[in-house]
Amino acid sequence: MVSSVDVAKLAGVSQATVSRVLNNPEKVNAPTLEKVKAAIQQLNYRPNAAARSLISRKSGIIALFCGQLDEPDNAEFANKAVMNAQQKGYTVEIHIQNPDKPESVFDAILDTQAEGIMMGPLIIKGTAVEYLKTSGIPYIFCGSGGGQEGITVGMDNHAAGKLAAEYISSLEPETVGWLGGDPSDLRLQERYQGFVEAMKESGVRIVKVTGDLEDIELPFTAMMAQKQRPDVIVAATDSFGIFALDFLYDYGYAVPEDVAVLGIGNSRQSAMNYLSLSSIGLPDDMDMVAEAFDRLSAMIENNGQGSRGSADVNPVVYERRTTKTY
Predict the structure, then answer these.
(1) Is the pTM of this model over 0.90?
(2) Taking the mean position of all CA atoms in its chain, how far away is CA 324?
(3) Nearest 5 degrees, angle CA 193-CA 198-CA 203?
(4) I want to staple 253 with a disulfide (CB 3.0 to 4.6 A). Which of 17, 39, 134, 258 is the partner?
(5) What are 121's strand-pairing partners?
(6) How far is CA 206 from the centre of its chain?
(7) For residue 311, which of 125, 151, 124 has the smallest C-alpha distance?
(8) 3-class secondary structure, 120
(9) How far apart are CA 110 and CA 22, in angstroms?
(10) Model confidence at 20, in pLDDT bands (50, 70, 90)?
(11) pLDDT in tens, 162-196
(12) Closest by alpha carbon to 81, among 99, 63, 107?
């Protein structure tokens, strides 16, 4: 079994320095910090779970991991998470995922002094799951993939894709365009899988365009330029749905008469009158973030126990102007 002594030897530092990197990284200069982290990754070293639990147990900190805050869904989630944490007397440290280096944010799990960790809407990579398992810190996934490795609270993404297919079938489309999503994002994969499974017997043509939001305009333009263009767009998230609306309005399409648009997520922005984006989302009486914090708090108070199991909530349809002619 790899020990901190092995890490120290490989990095060319003392064992005490390895300990400081794990427990007080702010006290270590940047070159040494990077050198020790590189050795930790190379040796696949994981700190002793019991020791890390003792270190972090009474810090009064919750570590929150989420995607970039310029996306409405992420900003809304982070705001709710901070409010819930403050109501329970915790301070929040926020770690923002860089979409260009999605795995790098999870290095913070090695350094955090948090009592609990919440994973919000982001791309979950293998390093996150492994670091969480061995950290000794109670954790929860909230609205993100990876919950099969621990406790999760969120919308059933497979069911959301299936419900999207069932709903748009009532619109009798000839061609449906699926828009958006990082192929490595488990949430969005599950949504697409559920959608395709439910559409299998319909005979409706499906055109798929995936990618990051900032790179989607060119392939979406090509999709809409096809001779048999989609008459319904199903967006992997509301953000992609809003992008589709902006594009369609700019090019003179009537929504929903020419092209109907359905998002997934039911973000606060989607319900605003100027958008009125139809969407698939959690029931109104389900506060996902509050539920996640209740569960995380119970685990913290009971030394990692107290989980009430995963909560995959069945979604509902919010029908608005982008799919319904009034």
Answers:
(1) no
(2) 29
(3) 115
(4) 258
(5) none
(6) 25
(7) 151
(8) coil
(9) 6
(10) confident
(11) 999 999 999 999 999 999 877 777 788 889 999 99
(12) 63
